[in-house]
Amino acid sequence: MLFPYGSPDILNAISSLGYAFFLFLNAVQADFTLTTKTGKKAWAIGLTSVLTPIAIGYLVIESKTFFPFWESILGNYEATSLLAVVISHSGCSFTVIAQFLTDLGILNSEIGRLALSSSFVINLSSGIFVGIGTAIFKSYEIDTLMIMMNVIYYIAFITLVPLVGRPLLRWVERQTPEDGPVNKIYTYAIIVVFLLLGFLAGQFHQPFLSGALVFGLVVPEGPPLGAELIDQLDLFATWFLTPIFITCCTMKLNLTLLPATPTLVAVILFVIIMVHLIKWILCISVCRFCNIPLTDSFCLALILSCKGVVDICSYMTVYDTLSQSEEAISVMIISVLMVGTISTFGVKTLYDPSRKYAGYQKRNIINLKPNSELRIVACMHKPSHMIPIKNVLQLCSPSLGNELVVDLLHLMELVGRASPIFIAHHHQQKKGGESSHHNYSGEVIVTFNLLEREYAGSVSINTYTAISPFTLMYEDVCHLALDKFASLIILPFHIRWTEDGGIESNDNNIRSLNTMVLERAPCSVGILVSHGGHRNSSNYNVAMIFLGGHDDREALCLAKRTFKDPNNNLVVYRLLARDRDITDWEHMIDDEALREVRGTYVKIENVTYEEKTAEDASQTTSFLKDIADKYDFIIVGRRNGIKSSQIDGLENWTEYSELGVIGDLLASPDMRTKASILVVQQQHTTTKS
């Protein structure tokens, strides 16, 4: 009633083209260079996970010992098709795994990166084997010569297309101006070549989709070319035609036939369970051999077992070639839903990537030994963040006995690719240059190399580039801080003001990232608020506002490093409440933290200590307005959740909770300050149970 005779075929033909574009775009997002970058661990996991189940399945199903048994209970047609069930469930789709990891928020995690590499190996190797198998199967009834010719044509196709296409497409990229759009003629030419290669694949008995996949892998991922193709085609192909194609595919099935064939259903379920158990055992065994924890090994096995949209469409392609019965395909599609559900719940329950950031070790400034180096992870997103970050590093007064070790992380949004990238530029320089045609963070590297030379012997700077989705960038930041034993992470605030007080940029993605890092960071965190204005001088007037609490004590320790440069001037303001309890334990700890500043340090010419009494929030606000424009830098503690009479009621008016009450007040346009503000949160420590 819904679809008159003939209309499903028309709809299916149109949406099939959309699905071909969907596969093409997903292949474009895959990093073809993973074939050379992938380590031995991923190759071992990938190859054993796909080849061993197929080999065992072939022995159990097609061998002379077992095949008569399957034939006696299923019949020749169904028994012959069991091997296709084994092959289809032994592999996995890179596209499905990448989307699965993104949905779970673990794309950037260690397990996520290993799963991506392993799935690429599985997808690539199984795709090649299936292509060769298709060439043999489609020519099996003709003659041996035709089988050999089709296999040779297929191997030549998957070899020559990358060898010829990749250099040509790199040439197209070089013709595109930096940060400029790709010429439309090149985009149209790529689409035409994609269609022609799909047609050419059909000439040696390969499906049209194989041409889309091979050419998609050849197109350079990411901007400018890959990102442009995705921007032009993704909405129409992925979000409009592909869902229609999947609906058309599943409409062909009739699940009411399953109760009539219980034996077939039971056998296929047995084969599917056997294949996945073998994959799990092999994956866990290889992972344990590589010293991966058991829980993580099992999670990786679950991830590599996951099925999705691409697998359903592949099953329906097999069904259309009459290689499988309707009942068998129905069971396989139901198994996709079951395996996907089990994998999702299993990984969510067992794997928590943030657990490694739990603060069992004290990694903060207050616990550093005297005259020890300060390790900082400084993050930036835009060129406008370079100067403020550079100013903060200079503020720390690097010198002999007050050394800085900086890991500078340039964060870029993942566009036009499926797999995240993490580049250590100092490793590339040791190898003699960039390992790819992309030149990431070139201006950043040059700027901070000059800073390192300016402070030779007292500053060490290593530059990194992380390209990942904004929702998962916190993983790169926290992992680098954990790996480099950092005591402080510096993050730029999401709003940047111009010199006249107007808003230059406002990025809520950066704000979300800052919030997630504050919650998960394995060390202390500083959020840098810049009000515009680029300073050429490295001499700073610095104010530190101290109310009390662990965040303020951490901020004080950072402030005490600034006056080691005699050209910097530090003023420490302590805001006291009239109703303070001098016997309170926190108050006593605060007094001890300030003891040196009030005593020894105050004798130094460039250090001043002042105590101010603030009865209520209005007096605190007035005091901040008085000093806001007198300094180049103001350092404060975040003091999240700490209440005191000096700020009572102000927390209800706080617009940016990540800055705390004092930081939010200072960042407000009403303050009319040009000072940069650094809001410090001390590491959240955890007690081992």
UniProtKB/TrEMBL annotation:
The keyword Ion transport applies. Residues 404-532 form the Cation/H(+) antiporter central domain. The chain crosses the membrane at residues 12-30, 42-61, 81-102, 114-138, 144-164, 185-202, 264-286, 298-317, 329-347. Residues 541-683 form the Cation/H(+) antiporter C-terminal domain. Pfam families: CHX17_2nd, CHX17_C, Na_H_Exchanger. Keywords: Ion transport, Membrane, Potassium, Potassium transport, Transmembrane, Transmembrane helix, Transport. GO terms for biological process: potassium ion transport; proton transmembrane transport; regulation of pH. GO terms for molecular function: antiporter activity. It is found in: Membrane. It is a multi-pass membrane protein. GO terms for cellular component: endomembrane system; membrane. Belongs to the monovalent cation:proton antiporter 2 (CPA2) transporter (TC 2.A.37) family. CHX (TC 2.A.37.4) subfamily. This is Putative cation/H+ exchanger.
